[in-house]
Amino acid sequence: MSQYTHIIDGKPVTSSTTLDVQNPATQKKIAEVPVATKEQLDQAVAAARTALPAWSAKSQDERAQVLEQIAGVLEKNIAEYKHILVSEQGKTLADAEMELGAGVVLLRETAKLRVSDKIVVDNEQMRITERRVPIGVCAGIAPWNFPVALSMMKVGPALLAGNTMVLKPSPFTPLTTLQFGRDIQAVVPPGVINFLSGDDNLGPWITSHPGIDKVSFTGSSETGKRVMASASTGLKRLTLELGGNDPAIVLPDVNVAKIVPELFWAALINNGQTCVAAKRLYIHEKIYDEFRDELVKFAKTVKTGDGTDPQSQLGPVQNLMQYKKVLTFFDDAKANGYKFATGGDVNANPTDGLFIPASFVDNPPEDSKIVREEPFGPIVPLLKWNDEADVIKRANNTTMGLAASVWGKDLEAVERIAKQIEAGVVCMNERNPVTPFSALEYLSSLLPFLKWISRYNFGWAIGDIIAGLTVGLVLVPQSMSYAKIATLAPEYGLYASFVGVSIYCLFATAKDVSIGPVAVMSLQVAAVIKDVQKSHPGVYTGPEIAVGLAFICGMVVLGIGLLRIGRIIEFIPAPAVSGFMTGSAISIAAGQFPGLFGISSRLDTRAATYKVILDTLKNLKYSTKDAAFGVTGLLALYAIKFSFIHLAKRFPCRERLFFFLSIARNAFIIVVLTVAAYLYAHPRKDSEGDYPISVLKTVPRGFKHVGRPRIDTELISALAPHIPVSTIVLLLEHIAIAKCGYKSSIIEQHLINHAIFVAAFGRLNGYKINPNQELIAIGVTNTIGTLFSAYPATGSFSRSALQSKSGVRTPAAGLITGVTVIIALYGLTDAFFWIPNAGLSAIIIHAVVDLVASPAHAFMFWRIAPLEYIIWLAAVLVTIFSSIVGICEDNGIYTSVIASVALLLIRIAIPEGQFLGRVTLVAGDNKQPRDVYVPLSINGSLVNPRVKVEAPADGIIVYRLKESVIFPNSSSVNTALVNYAREHTKRGKDMTNVPLSEQPWNDPGPSRSAQVDETADAKKSVLRAVVLDFSAVAHIDTTGVQNLIDTRKEMERWADQPVEFHFASILSPWVRRALVAGGFGTDDRGRSVPYEAAPVVPLSASQDAGLSDEYVTIAFNDQPSEDDTSKIREDIKSTSSSTATLEAPIVSRSTPYFHLDLCSAVRAAETFV
């Protein structure tokens, strides 16, 4: 049997008295929980009050991040928690999993909220700002019907708003909450949320406690009245979520067979133990009999039983007290002769589980107990009605108007009735969406277009049409060109284009991004096709391989998005991807130059890039007439581009006109080349049907390959080695540009991956995107695209920049682009026959050259971080010089990623630290001096090298750490400190006269015959104190603490006396906690230093109160009230000045060696010395 405890100030706490928890399905004891005492409640409130200043001082983003971490803990443990929840609450496994999932959604959706200041008045006379501030310590009292989800509804808003909390679960269902409370302590600062279990006394103690500022209670209306009365004595803020007697009105035009299951579960969700469940079903008399009979049939198909049984759909009533209350409704119905349509048989003295079958009372009178009161169990009245005004009056005849619903096909009648119902929430043709099962909201969040489509207007449509058509003019020729790179027929590029722009807009949170075929992904597809066909000759066609790759990569990306782990892409840094993209772009361009000159048949364009370049140069003398079309087209593309750039600069008032004319150059050149090819080649067809130049020839009209893709286990096995890199490449262009930026004159750089990529467009255009939703959009797009035989599509940087510049207003612009592609597929395929292949090569070269990092951009990498420039260069060279047979994308991206990860690990494992000295600065008219600490060696730093840096006082070392102190690097910190101490301070004990037998074997000191520079040694002082600047230390682990302990021991052995360790600017309570556990920070003169940071056998230690003169002043306009004074911590010192100030230490008196900043830490070290 698991042991459950309170959680107070981050620590597990037990009580002398315990409470049994029973499984309602068996009525057997399953666990014991501690019963909190008044003293323990005081401790929990005090812990929450102590944690409040630091927690409320955090930004909303920082608090939201903690909520995300809490949600992650809950999500990670759903598999474990659901069994605990079923055993204590009784609900089915499916319902338990749904409740826990709802808790995750509630926390994550809450974490997205932000409360900003509101300017109420802002004029020349005054400015009034409305600001929401934390209330203080909040208490949550959770019910037993949804113990986790309803707790998260309290925890999320309270913590996000900057409050701290005491949470009390129901004594009937405390287990999951207490287990969850213990598990989240690793991510929540101590005291921010405390968990107390208890009996019926704990609730009143909480509501009347003077240290609690707000109470949130969920439970029955009767208990709510007592909570309000108790809280009123202290004028506490109060939130009450109480009972409801919710009506559901069914109109005569409904489809009875369809609506019966909906209303059954609307009434008996969680076995009827739901505040917003339908408690009264008003059925129009025209369909009453039919509805009742269908309901009886359906009820007989629903199994009531133990929640652990997969066949069970309804569980037991949660506790015996509630069971007996529900029995009173059965007794009253039977005593008054009411008829049960189904159910009604209940055991008054259950010996096993507290099971009650689903029961419906057949048309009881309006004044009956079952109609007037809330049973909160599986018994529901069916009621006839025939007059609209009368049924509205009956529905409103309750003091518990929490929720209601109206059902019917006549939407005008439904809305008319709904407007007259007096309830907090009225739903039309659906169950109440605010129940804890609002995971439906999560599902709806997967379709973001639902949030804006209802506001779509003519102004938006104009912008979307212009942008959609503009992108379409570029997309059609580009997509056929990129299909050529992928070694596929041109129609497959059009398929991928249509699906990309059409499906993505339904799931996207970015309006500027355009999805479709891209050059680098096309190159990867070509490599995969070649490799699979080499290993499986004659088994799979190129399109089958490409479509299978799209499906698998799409599912992987979709999974990453749904699991919210898109941040793993952040491990691919900008230089690595820039190098890969640059190398890939050079490879693509090199492979297209033979086609540009009509010499593709004379060389292997899929060989290593350098070989293709050399072979192209060797065979230029064999150029064909295709060069007239290809080279001319390429030169024309650049001529048009640079001409309009020049014109835009010269005539800025017409810049937008020149922009649209410039972006049409691809379509214009293709049209001109196609007409020229037709005029030249059509009359010159030879006897074998060939033409003097290479043309595209037949492009099938419409969607010729729609259907289920061929994906079998053998193909999956063949594709498996290529999935990691293919997925990375799929994401590269769709998340990246935020790390590098872009020029609005179409493109300068084409980099990195989708979630960050769209984030950049969002920031530039004033909206926020959801990176994980973007991954979902890409995943769905590629998965659905396989039905259209589309090969992998992702975000195109060039077309996205173009769409943004064209004035797009919503993601619906993608539909306009999709229509453009359909027009091309169904209306222009005959014309596509005459497109010269050399012209397509020109289009490709013109597009991909912009992907190559410019020299200035590459030099920027060198200026920022030379090692990252080397990684960039390695990625470029490996991508270019790897053979395509080995798949150059794999080699290039793997090289850059592995090198980047290695550099990251080296930076973590070998951190830079600095030994500091003092510089006194003066500034302002008053020349007020202030001390700052800079590196003792300032050569090459940002400090003026002529500035004189004063070394710390004799015997003091000041050291600034630049990384967290964790297991890979902690020994480096130890080495740096110990070596510096040995070099700059003298040994505290003269070892020359110490017998050899007493000298340590590994540190004997100078030999007796050695010449010792006594003058130099005399100038040194004995080490007395070390000051560590922890301003850059976010984490410290057990190994790090142990190395600091070892450092102190080595230094004290060297100095032959105690050495004080002072710590400045500790930012994390967890770092402070770890240091205290290691024996640092406290007033430990005469201490016994522990040998381990986390000893197996606990050691007893005392913490004497030390001295500290670091205070923060809290000023009041008037004399502080008694309430104000009572809320100040015990160590606040009151003054008697006329300003009525209160002073409190800014750091705890129990840790005098922890200091607010570096200056105070050095002063303290000098004082102690």
From TrEMBL:
Residues 954-1110 form the STAS domain. Its EC number is 1.2.1.3. GO terms for molecular function: aldehyde dehydrogenase (NAD+) activity; sulfate transmembrane transporter activity. Residues 988-1013 are annotated as: Disordered. Keywords: Membrane, Oxidoreductase, Transmembrane, Transmembrane helix, Transport. It comes from Thanatephorus cucumeris (strain AG1-IB / isolate 7/3/14). This is Sulfate permease, SulP family. The gene is SUL1. Its main location: membrane.
